[in-house]
Amino acid sequence: MSASTLRSTPSPVEQNRTALTFDRTVPRQLVHRASVAEVFLTDGTRIAADRFLVGAQWPRRHVLYRPDRSGRHDFMLLAETVRQAGIFLIHRFHDVPLGHHFVFRSLDLRIDDLDSLRVGATPLGAVLDITVTASGDTARRLDARLDVTVEVDGRPCAYGSVSVVVLDARGYDIVRRRGRDLTAAPPADTAAPSTAPAVAGRQDADVLLRSVDGAGPDTWLLHVDPRHPGYFEHPSDHVPGMVLLEAFRQAGHLAAARDCVLASLEARFRAFGELCRPIVIRSAARPDGPLHLTAHQGERTLAEADALFVRA
């Protein structure tokens, strides 16, 4: 009588996941970063026609995205990683040329397992399992949606989606000129930060919110500094969407209880924010739901989001 051992063969997905490398970043140009230090992706591979795996590594402490009070990685670090993954995949696997412009329409992110994001003794590695739905001409305009599962230690910890329009230089110029208003002079912004950095979760220089004379505690003026090395990591002709999301995060922290952290964000981008005109950030509480946050420039809504804060 003999006995045999049945060995399971890893699936193609598991084989590709194991093959991802984490010893260097992807080229910074493929995620639209000027500094290698701001690149969080390490590798990427296609596992089906529309499905990809992307490796990422998060530093234990980032100059801007610092751990929260409970020692977990910053929500915005995950959001930036998802944003970079979208840009990387579209350049790398959809053959979109460098120099094309990525106009984000939405970014949703929900963290289900906060404890998996605790900062440890070494940088934390993650795998993003992404399905891409794309249509259009990669040479001129591409519309894409990415559905993302973020895995840490082989287990899903967060889910997200991104929608983006990719335009060539001519198409971007047409979109930017449409409805653009540059008549207003740059606003004077000499006010001190509106709140202590410990409340906003940032250092003094990283606090984006300024108080508005005569307004309530739910209304803020966005401080736009194109020289800021984190929020304007490279030159931009408009206020970056990630700056608006960070302003929403800060305003949400001021409206939520002190010991709460951001766990979910559903954001929609409606219009470009011009650098030379004031932007007002508002938060509105709901009895039993997420905070609603908006960014307005004059009569235009630039972005809006629903943000859910939970006890840390």
What does this structure look like?
The protein is α+β, with helices and mostly antiparallel strands. The chain has five helices and twelve strands. It has a twelve-stranded antiparallel beta sheet with strand order 1-2-4-5-6-3-9-12-11-10-8-7, with helices on both faces. A hairpin with a 2-residue loop joins strand 11 (291-297) and strand 12. The protein is globular, with a radius of gyration of 20 Å. The mean pLDDT is 90.
Give descriptors for this structure.
312 residues; alpha+beta; Thiol Ester Dehydrase, Chain A; 18% helix
Question: What is the topology?
Answer:
Blueprint: H1 12-19, E1 41-48, E2 51-58, H2 75-94, E3 101-111, E4 124-137, E5 141-152, E6 155-167, H3 169-177, H4 197-200, E7 209-211, E8 219-222, H5 241-255, E9 260-269, E10 280-284, E11 291-297, E12 300-311
Antiparallel strand pairs: 1-2, 2-4, 3-6, 3-9, 4-5, 5-6, 7-8, 8-10, 9-12, 10-11, 11-12
Give the total of beta strands.
Answer: 12
Total domain units? 2
CATH architecture label of the largest domain? Roll
> Helical proportion?
10-25%
CATH topology of the largest domain: Thiol Ester Dehydrase, Chain A
- Tell me about the largest β-sheet: 12 strands, antiparallel
Radius of gyration: 20 Å
Low-confidence stretches: none
Could you state the CATH homologous superfamily of the largest domain? Hotdog Thioesterase
In which order are the strands of the major sheet placed?
1-2-4-5-6-3-9-12-11-10-8-7
Query: Can you write the helix and strand succession as a string?
Result: HEEHEEEEHHEEHEEEE
Assign the structural class, choosing from mainly alpha, mainly beta, alpha/beta, alpha+beta, or little secondary structure: alpha+beta
* The top level CATH class name of the largest domain: Alpha Beta
